[in-house]
Design goal:
globular; 0% strand; 6 helices; mainly alpha
Length: 147
C-alpha cells in the first residue's frame, strides 16, 4: 500500500508540474488554483502514507518561503507563482530534494538563457518561464533517484 501511495504521489507531482508548466509557457503567469490543488493532494497523500510529521512540514516549506520572500524583495523579478509552486513541492518532497530540484532547474534555465543570449540574440531582459525548468528538473531528479 505504501509503495502505491509513493507512485501516486510521484504521478500527481509530475502531472501537476506539467499542467502548471504549460500554463506558465502560454499565459506567462501561474494561476493560484493549480498549486493549491497540488498542495492539497500532496498533504492528503502524505497523511495517508503516514509520512507527515512536524519536521517534514517545516523543512519542506522553507525553500518555498525563501522564494516567496525573494519575489517580494525583488518586486516580482522572481514571480509569486514560482514561489507558490516551490512551496507546494514541500507537500511532495523533502527539503533536500527540493533544493536538488531547484539547482537542476536553475542550471537548465541558465543554459537556456545563455542559448537565448548568444544564439538567438535576445536581450538580457527577456523573460523565460521557470516552472517548465522545475518540471524538467523533477524528471531528472526522479530518474536519478529511481522513482
Amino acid at each position: 500500500m505504501q509503495e502505491n501511495i509513493i507512485i501516486i504521489r510521484s504521478v500527481i507531482l509530475l502531472a501537476g508540474l506539467a499542467v502548471i508548466a504549460v500554463e506558465d509557457l502560454y499565459r506567462k503567469e501561474i494561476s493560484t488554483i493549480w498549486p493549491v490543488i497540488m498542495g492539497i493532494a500532496g498533504v492528503l497523500l502524505s497523511v495517508a502514507a503516514g509520512e507527515w510529521n512536524e519536521w517534514r512540514f517545516l523543512l519542506g516549506f522553507i525553500p518555498g518561503i525563501l522564494v516567496l520572500s525573494a519575489a517580494w524583495l525583488t518586486n516580482e523579478t522572481i514571480g509569486y507563482g514560482d514561489g507558490l509552486v516551490i512551496l507546494c513541492l514541500g507537500c511532495f518532497l523533502t527539503g533536500r530534494e527540493i533544493m536538488d530540484l531547484c539547482v537542476a532547474a536553475i542550471t537548465l534555465a541558465g543554459i537556456t538563457a545563455l542559448f537565448l543570449l548568444v544564439i538567438m540574440r535576445k536581450g538580457r531582459k527577456t523573460e523565460i518561464p521557470f516552472v517548465p525548468f522545475l518540471f524538467a528538473g523533477c524528471i531528472i531528479i526522479k530518474c536519478i533517484q529511481g522513482g
